[in-house]
Each structure stands twice: as structure tokens, then as C-alpha cells.
Write a structure and sequence with these properties.
LPAR6 protein; transmembrane helix; 8 helices; receptor; mainly alpha; about 210 residues
Length: about 210
């Protein structure tokens, strides 16, 4: 449907084109996700793997809403707000951005399969497989964000520096893993942008020459 294609274009601009989020793109993205969830409930939308991925993408903006609520609570509490609350708001945005980027890349890859390998890829493009992929993505994102939360807590409390012995080594390893994961996330974000541009470049010229 045209509405779903417009929504995907909006999300690609929001997460894979813009260098950083802003208030306008965030609000428009939330409204687009709400409308998309309503559209996906319609009987006119068939249950396909692409619809499952788009639904998971739209549901990801629930994390943005929760982050805004958390930020509003932190602002209302003023200086007395616990550092963990502010860290949770940031991590929710991180989870939304990372999960959305990977889901958008999955949609792009599926579009590539539909365009160039429609018959060969049909056994893979099932609703069940799409649900498994979506769950796997969010499981990995949840694990990533849990590590970030632990690292933020250790940094704010100074526990990693104060601890000695095996516990201190474990805390230092956790902090190092979080730092490496942040760097890896940045590199993967750039790679996903390049891959998505390449996929849609190939699809555009393939369709235009037919």
C-alpha cells in the first residue's frame, strides 16, 4: 500500500538519512507509527512477512514515547532525579534507533529478494520467519541496552574503580565490552546506510529498465 511505502520512506529518512533525531522528526515519526499500526489492523492488509517487519518497526516507537515520558518525569523532579532514570531515557532511545535501523535493513533485504529472487526466496519470506527475525533483533537490542545500563550505573557510582580482585576485573570487562559495543554500533550504522543505498539503487534501476 502507498501509505506503508510512505511510512517506510519516512523511517528511512529519520534513521538512515538524518545525522541525528530532532523534535520534528520524532513527532512525525510517532504519528506515522500510530497511523501505520491502525492500517495494519485493517483487513485490506494481508498477513505477509513484510507487514510483520513493518509492524515491529512501528511498535518500536513505543520506546520513544516511554523515553519522552521518562524525560518529562526527570525534568519535573529536577536535580534530585536519580542518574539511573536519566540513563534509562537515553537507553530507550538507543534501543529504538538500533532496532529500527536493523528492521529497516531487513525490509530492504526482503525487497531485494522479491525483486531479484522471487521464486527462490519464497520459502524464506514467511510470516513465521519474519516473526523469528523480529524477536531475535529485539532480544539482541535488549541485551545491548542492558549492558549499557550496567555500564552507566558503574560509571556514575564509581563501582568499577573502587572494586578490587575478581569483581573489579569483571566490572572492568563489562565497561570495556560496553565501550566496544558503542564503537561497533557506530560502524554498523554506517555500513547499514551503505547497504540500504546499494539495495535500493539496484532495485530502482532494475525496475526502471523493465
Amino acid at each position: 500500500m502507498k501509505d506503508l511505502r510512505r511510512y517506510l520512506a519516512l523511517k528511512y529518512i529519520q534513521y538512515l538519512v538524518l545525522s541525528s533525531s530532532n523534535a520534528v522528526s520524532t513527532v512525525v515519526g510517532l504519528l506515522g507509527s500510530a497511523c501505520t499500526l491502525l492500517i495494519l489492523q485493517s483487513a485490506r492488509v494481508s498477513s505477509k512477512s513484510t507487514a510483520v517487519l513493518i509492524s515491529s518497526l512501528a511498535q518500536a516507537d513505543i520506546l520513544v514515547f516511554l523515553s519522552l515520558v521518562s524525560a518529562a518525569l526527570c525534568w519535573s523532579l529536577g536535580p534530585g532525579v536519580p542518574p539511573a532514570a536519566a540513563a534509562a531515557a537515553r537507553v530507550l532511545l538507543t534501543a529504538n534507533a538500533h532496532g529500527s535501523c536493523v528492521l529497516l535493513s531487513c525490509v530492504a533485504f526482503e525487497a531485494y529478494l522479491i525483486t531479484f529472487l522471487p521464486s527462490e526466496s519464497r520459502p524464506l519470506r514467511t510470516v513465521r520467519n519474519a516473526r523469528v527475525v523480529a524477536r531475535a533483533i529485539w532480544t539482541l537490542v535488549a541485551a545491548e541496552c542492558a549492558l549499557f545500563l550496567v555500564d552507566d550505573h558503574l560509571v556514575s557510582s564509581g563501582a568499577a574503580a573502587a572494586a578490587r580482585g575478581p569483581l573489579g576485573l569483571l566490572l572492568q570487562l563489562s565497561s570495556t565490552a560496553a565501550a566496544l559495543l558503542r564503537a561497533l554500533s557506530y560502524v554498523l550504522g554506517i555500513l547499514l546506510r551503505i547497504v540500504n543505498v546499494y539495495i535500493y539503487y539496484k532495485i530502482f534501476f532494475s525496475v526502471s529498465t523493465r
